[in-house]
Design goal:
The protein is an alpha/beta fold. The chain is built from ten helices and eight strands. Helix content is about 55%, strand content about 20%.
Length: about 220
């Protein structure tokens, strides 16, 4: 098996779905608009600096899921995907995915953004396999908590190892495409790390190591 792994936000997408979902909820009135949007921005800037407290962020970002029925959430999500996410899917990102698909590579997205938000985004790319932070559900409603290890920083390696174990095979070759310093643990572990529109820290590491640096922005 040859495995092509993709980060999602600011890699396959020309934007951040997690941050955008928070801003979308603020715009709908589902959350306290100004206050929620401001805190969402603070967490986003922490992520960009590589200082994000993932537990604090998940408590914040998953809390709205617990306040509404699944039907309400799905209706908002459909609107979010159509109006916010679809315009962030570039031709270059689609072409990269299709290049790996045409070669017969297994395709996998690993993202810290929660599964509720990212499941339909993976479907936009026709990618079946998605490893994402899992919101907890009980009695047909989200609880506001998460299950397992967040797929963030080294947690992406943990999730990948568990996924490969369930398949009972190890890849012969691996690619990982990412924009973020937060993904350096997994980038360092694969055969073919690729920096995509990278942040300054990842760009410097890629240049020092001779990793390819590409852009997927149209």
């Amino acid at each position: 098996m040859h495995l092509a792994i993709f980060d999602l936000d600011n890699t396959l997408l020309a934007g951040d779905s997690d941050h955008s979902w928070g801003q979308f909820l603020a715009g709908t009135g589902a959350v306290d608009g100004a206050a929620y949007a401001a805190q969402n921005q603070v967490f986003y800037e922490d992520y960009q600096r590589g200082t994000l407290d993932i537990d604090a962020f998940l408590r914040f970002s998953l809390a709205p899921l617990a306040r509404f029925s699944v039907d309400e959430l799905l209706a908002w999500r459909r609107e979010f995907i159509e109006t916010v996410i679809t315009p962030l899917v570039t031709d270059k990102a689609r072409a990269l995915v299709e290049q790996h698909r045409a070669r017969g590579d297994e395709l996998l997205i690993i993202t810290a953004t929660n599964y509720f938000v990212t499941e339909p985004i993976a479907a936009l790319f026709g990618i079946e396999h998605l490893l994402a932070t899992r919101p907890e559900m009980k009695d047909g409603r989200y609880t506001g908590n998460y299950q397992g290890v967040p797929t963030f920083q080294a947690g992406k390696q943990t999730a990948l190892a568990a996924w490969l174990a369930t398949r009972g095979e190890q890849p012969e070759r691996t690619w990982f495409y990412s924009d973020s310093r937060n993904d350096l643990p997994l980038l360092e572990a694969v055969d073919h790390p690729v920096a995509v529109d990278p942040d300054p820290v990842l760009r410097a590491r890629a240049q020092a190591a001779g990793w390819p640096i590409i852009s997927l922005r149209d």
